[in-house]
Amino acid sequence: MKTEEGYLDIDGGKIWYKIYGADNRAIPLIVVHGGPGFSHDYLEPLNGLADERPVIFYDQTDCGNSSKSNDPSRWCVEYFGRELAQVCTALGLKQCHALGHSFAAAIVVSCLLEAKCDAIKTMILAGPMLNGAIMNDDIACAIDLMPEEHRTVLRFARSNDTSKFTQDQLDKAQTTFLRQVYCRVDTWPECLYRSIGKQNTAFFNHMIGQSLFNFTGNLRDFDITDKLGDIKVPVLLTWGAHECVNPDFDKAAFHNNKIPGARTIILNEASHMHHLEQTEAYLEAVRGFLRENEAGN
């Protein structure tokens, strides 16, 4: 299996990329990382699909190995949607499948609908963050499920008032939360720690806020769900059951019903990082979806 790595010149800088299975002639899968401000590293297990097709990773501007602009005006979904379109063009992709995790699902949708990227033939949206208000409500519901000692701390953190708690209490509450709804693997994979270590904090703070629990960034009012009905390509939505915790709102059904012909898969023993928690089941679901939509091509 051939691996190719390098940099692409696009408007505003250089984008790092790596292709696993670069010598395979099947339709490539381009993988778009979330964060905001993460690097591609935590999605590396998806290179397990490179036995059938090229799997392309890249780091967004101001992330990981790519150019650092330090320009907050770029830190918005629309910019990164246009950037993805430029990456597809620079790689010479006439057609591709696109997988976006979390915040990156909005990037993929924006690339297709707003940047008018004709190369994207199917989309896999993993734990998609397409509406800031829904994300904010999810966080509140997840906090309500925490043990009381942590629930109290996190509720105060949402109002940016943590003065009555020690740093140890804050750290324990956040860790408990993340291990419930973010990644439930006992020992987090090294690839996830790499992305965390490379995170662009200023980027994250601009789009999310000082923390997940004090959501004040520009994604708070973001909503692209009203445009999902315009999607004309096949879509697979994937979720971890433990990230769908709101008893009054079926998030998976809401998104599925918004996208014509979309298919939804929920992994019962997983949460937001379901590609790390149930890797083999996740890869098989994606593999089957891609095979089905290539049949007869």
From TrEMBL:
Protein's UniProt keywords contain Protease: yes
EC number annotated for this UniProt entry: 3.4.11.5
Residue ranges annotated for the AB hydrolase-1 domain, each copy included: 28-277
Pfam families: Abhydrolase_1
Keyword ATP-binding: no
Keywords: Aminopeptidase, Hydrolase, Protease
Family matches, as Gene3D superfamilies: alpha/beta hydrolase
GO molecular-function term, one example from the UniProt record: aminopeptidase activity
NCBIfam families linked to this entry: pro_imino_pep_2
Family to which the UniProt record says this protein belongs: Belongs to the peptidase S33 family.
Record-given protein name: Proline iminopeptidase
Taxonomic source organism: Candidatus Magnetominusculus xianensis
